[in-house]
Structures are given as C-alpha cells and as structure tokens.
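Exam review. A common question shows you a sequence with its structure tokens and asks you to describe the fold in words. Practice with the pair below. Do the first one on your own.
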Amino acid sequence: MTHRRLAAAALAAGCWTATPLDAQVTTPPLLAPPPGLKLPATHETRLPNGLRLVVVPMHEVPLVQVVLSVAGGAREDGSLPGLATFTGNMLDEGAGTRDATSIAAEAAYLGATLFTGSDWNGVNVGLRVPKRTMRPALDLMSDVVLRPRFATSEVERQRGLRLASLLQQKDVPQAVAGNAFNAIVFPEDHPYHRPIGGDSVSTAALDSATVRAFYSRTFRPERTTVIVTGDITLPEARAELEKRFGSWSGSASAASRTPSSAVAPERRPRTVYLIDKPGAAQSVIRMGHPGLDRSSLDYYAVQVMNTLLGGSFSSRLNSNLRETKGYTYGARSGFDYQPLPGAFIAAADVRTDVTDSSLIEFNLELRRIRDSLVDPDELERTKQYLALRVPGSFETTGQMAGQVGTLLTFGLPFTWFDDYVRRIMAVTREDVRRVARAHVHPDSMVVVVVGDVAKIRPHIEKLGWGSVVPRQP
C-alpha cells in the first residue's frame, strides 16, 4: 500500500488529528549548557634515534591510523617553490622494490589507504588500515618513507603533469585570485609569497637530483613525528615502529633551513587590484591583510568574532550577500593560522553586475563587527555553535590524528581542548568588538578582484576606495 493510501486510511479511521494552532511550537527550545569534553589519554615517547611517537588509543573500532610528519615542508623550498610538495607527492611513485602501481595494489589488497604529500610545515605520509593487516601495511609505509626511488622517468612524468596543472590553473579565477592575494600581502622573501605548489619556472627546474637532495637534507628521524591513533597501545606502537624505523639515521651535518622567522608583512592603505577575465559572468573577490599569530591571547575571542562575521553558514557575510542580497552562493572570512602567521581573508564569487555592490556590503559588515556590540542572542548562538561542534572533530581515528597534529604544530599541550569550551563560552560582547577593532582593518585591505575589468572598473572606481591597479594574472 502506498504512503498516500496509508495516510488516507488513517485519516478515515480517525487515527490522525490536527495539532491546534495554539498548541504549535512557535519558539525554539533552549539549549542546555555544552557538555564537557573527555578525550582519550595521549601517550608520548621517543625512539633512540630521536623519532617522536605520540599514541592515542581508541579501541572502539579495529582500525589504526598512522601519520608520519617530517618537519619543514614548503617553508624549506628556498629558491624553488613547490619542491616540498613535489617531493611529498613523489614518495609513493616508487619505493623499495615496488613501482607506483604495485604500491597502490598492495595497499588496496591490505584494505589500507596510503597517502603522501606536503603542507607548509611538513612532508607527510599517512596510513589508515584495519588492525589485522597493520604489520604488512607498515612494511609498505616504511618503504615509502625510507626507500623512495625518485626515478628519473617518474620525476619527469610528474613534472610534466604539474606543469600542465599549473597551466590549467591560470584559467581558474579562484586560483588566480588566491595566488595574487598572497603575492601582494606577503613580501618577496616570505615563504607564503609564492604558491605552495610553485610556478612554471620553479617546476621546470625540478629533476631527480634536486628531489633527492631535498629528501636527504630534510628526512631525518629527530625531525620526524609519528602520530598513531586507533586500536593500539603505546607499547604495541613503539614495538612496531622501532622494528621498521629504529635503524633510521640521518647525516649529522644535514641542517634544517626552516626559517625561525620571516620578514613580517605590513598593512598598507586599501588598494584594489583588478585582474582581467574578459566576458566573465562573475567576479572573484579576495580581500584581507596580514593576520594573527596563533599564540595570541585573543585567539578565543577572535574565533567567536570571525564565526559571527564569516566563519559559518549563518554568519553575517553569508546572510547578507547570499540570503538577503542574492549576490553569491557563499561569502566567508577567516584567519589562516600557521607557525608563521598567515592572512585574514574575506571572500566571495559574485555576479559581475553586482561587484561594486558586493564590495560595499563587505565593507559594511567589516565595519559593523568593529563598531557595534553584537546582539546577546546572536553571540550566544555563535558560542553554542563553536562549543557543540567540538566533539564531532574527534569521532574518527583520522580526525583525532589531525587534531593532535595541529597541537604539535603550534606547540600546544595535549590538554588544550580540555579548556576550549569554557574559554569560548566566556567571550563577551565587549571582547568581540575589541578583537575586531584590533585584528580587522577595512581601511588597510588588499582587495583582489578577478573579473571582466571593462564592466567592473568604472563602478569600483566610483567607490573611492583608493588606488585601483590593473594586475597581470
């Protein structure tokens, strides 16, 4: 019997009755205080060769996650941007006696997922595997970490693929806007000035010898951290890793080139940079300035402030530009936290004909968060949103490994999350306005717009936002 027939039969039998209007719920229920967060214990040790091991037992599911990270990453690229990410991607393109196809086939046979790559702070190798096939999967992982081939033919093939990808990115407005924004905000000798994946010039210079030299210089056990989460104990993890990585050693003369500091970017008068995309149906807007150090005492208040401003779907920027104005599918803002501070950025992709109007609304919301005290109900909803989403960030072995990795990256204690909810809930209206005034500066924005310049430039110039500068992609 169909649902429609069932409904008709129930109505005929008098089984369903309509809810009286005066009994209908017209206000949402009040939320209870956020529950306390109790995380599994974190255990730490070091192998004799200096490798750091961090283990978080999670015995609910017979899975194990292993993430090995060699400190440095793209911050060590030097004169060849993209070198670290290229090296990270090459690790599983042949290792030991296996080629890339054999590595992928063996991982699949073991029910494992093996991934390699690099970010600004480290070269990473990750393994997610059922407990029962963990040992052969760790053998495979150790080959990838300790015995990569970096064969000339594979390096040339991957170099060609990256060059093709970089060429394609020149036709992607979002990529063009992001690269231009970073190049303007950060000075030339800053690691973030150039794309993490490099450019065509630096990529063309990559060869097997260059990749091997980077690997030899950076891959050392005393610079390596392994995070293990899942159905395992510290003694088990130590025994398995010592068996595979205990004899690993590096050259005593090898030195890290990771910069302990960089020339700090400076705020400048607001300037609009236009990158031409003739005939574009939309304009890609990226605006911001140098951001905030992760160790700042303002961190918790800034989290609340930015969530209000543009860090959630119900944020002011998204509600204004998407829901009220209909200019875009989404508007957002955020702080890029890195050991070397990243940028504050607000962004949206908007219709060409409302580019100037969208900039006006961005400016309105950036000033409103600075100038007015937030409504108490809006503040409470935002704090509840941040507090209640925390437990969902620790559900899987991969999420747990990621959160522990973040704590290690910033030198934070493993107990940091114990106090997170309390600190978020303690943020006041005055705190939000204070940190907005301290860390959001509408008059010092770098504004990058990729779009049809012939159509948008006259309207943007009428805004009186200072210099309007054409820029090549």
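Now try the second one, then compare your answer with the model answer below.
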Amino acid sequence: MHDKHNEADGLFSKAWQASTMEPSYLSSHKNGTLALRIEQALHGLQSCELCPRRCCVDRTAGQSGICKTGRNTIVASFAPHFGEEAPLTGRYGSGTIFFSNCNLNCVFCQNFDISHKGEGKEVTPSQLAGMMLELQKKRVHNINLVSPTHVVPQILEALPEAIDGGLNIPLVYNTGGYDSVETLKLLDGIVDIYMPDIKFTSDIPALFYCTAPDYPQVAQDALREMHRQVGVLQLNSHGHAMRGMLVRHLVMPDGLAGTQKAMHFLADELSADTYVNIMDQYHPCGDIKQFKELQRPVTPEEIEEALSAARAAGLSRIDNRERPILMHWR
C-alpha cells in the first residue's frame, strides 16, 4: 500500500529544499553556461527550427514564419497577475510578461488579439530585462514568461542584463506545450518552473483546431524533458513555487481534449506527484465559426468528470482554487 506518511514527509522535504534554493539561471550565468546558450539560440534564428513547425526562415533578416515574429521580441503587456495558480500568485502576484504571437495558434484562444493578431510592441533585450526588474521591484514571486516558445533566444539574450541588475526570483516558462526537445535543452539549468499545457491527446482535434496533428506526441516528449530537468513542483515554507513543473489541462466540450488519457500520461509517465490544474474556463471565442462542437461552454458534469479522471489516474496534487458555479448549456 502507498504510505501517506512517507508521501507527506517527502513533500515536506522538497518544500524545505526549495526554501533554500536560488534560481537556476544565477549559477548558469556565473559558470558561462548562459552565454553559450545565448550564442547557440541566436545562431538558430538564421534558419529557425526553434519549435516543431521548423519554418527555417532567417529571422535575423526580419523574415518570419508561423509565429509572425522576426528578430525582435514583441510584448503585449507585463504586470503582476493574480489569476494564476496559488503557488505562483502568492500575496504579491506572478510577474507575467505576455509575448505577442504564438507558434500554435489555437482557433479558440482566449487571448486571440495577442496570439493571432500580434497586438503589442517590439522591445529590445535591454527593455525586456528592464521589465523583469520592474516586476521584481513590485515584489512578485516569479517572472512568468507567457507564450515564450518562439522567443527563447530573445529571452536568454535579456537575462544577463537582468541578472546583473539584481534579478533573483524564479523563472517560469508558461507554454502551450508545442515545444521541441532541442530548444528545451537550451533552457536546462536556466528555467526554474515549467508550466506547460497538455491540450490534446488525439491528432484529429489538434489538426482541426491548431493545424498541428503532431501535437500529442510533441507535447508528451516536451513534458518528459521538462520533468527531467526540474522534477515535480517544489514549494517553500510559504507555499510559493520555487522549482519544478505545474501542468495545465483545459477541459473542452464533449471530451475533445482527451482528459482521461492526459491524466494517465501525467501520473504514469511523469509522476503521481505532478501538480495539475484542471481548467474549467473554456468558452466560445476566437475564430471557431466553422466548428459547431466548440460553440458551447463546458458543463459542470464535464468538469467533474475531468476531476474524477485525474483522481482515478492517481494524481493528488490538483489545483484546488474555488471554482465558479457553471450554468448548464441549453
């Protein structure tokens, strides 16, 4: 039988270790690893294969592929955010930086103006570093990089100046999960917390809604690599995330996301201690007019089925934020 006391002791030990942990990027900067990774990442922009789309355009010359982003980063907004999971938000918020455009481009995206239309302004590495430091001055608990997949080189490029300016809080990589293992390896020893989505476990929905039929396999490979690097989520004595992995799964109408299979993947192939947020906020938005099946919100029964699937798979670290009462779709 699984010993609950041993499990509790293990989680306490992880929390104690996390309380004494400094961000990974500090040592990588000191030992020269970060400088090497920056060089490798920027070189890759000349024939971009950063993500599984492998557009092979020369972004250093201003060309752009699926992500519609050339050499410079585009930022939509940056601010303390209080709507994230409790281990990230804490008292003073998560320091979110929303990058414009996206390599996945889900038709139902709730940030459609940012991800599809590219709303935002180009920023230099120095300006991006300044944003990180300004957020830290507001006492946020982490720097939360939202939709970072297509701008990994630019993020790395900004870090030395931010570190030299005193940056010393965890770095969160907040991604849709469509990440290549090769690019993720550039972040090993630099990113402290990975927060990927696991959106689909079947190729047909991924094809229809993201034009990425390889998403299920790509995301699973990416999550394995993230878990290899940082392991399960570790909290300090205040309950703040310091290192590890937090996975999001958006429940969709009629089981389109493949929730049961996703939960078994997390529990069986990563860890039963994986921290999971079963997200209940799907609602019709974006560009879904041709998809009748997406034109209703999820029901309370579908949310409860998803939570039950997570528990049945053996997952116990399920985000327990207060969930709103959902109206039935008629």
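Model answer, second protein: Strands lie at 73-81, 94-99, 121-123, 143-146, 171-175, 193-196, 234-235, 241-250, 275-279. The chain is about 40% helix and 15% strand. Full marks require stating both points clearly.
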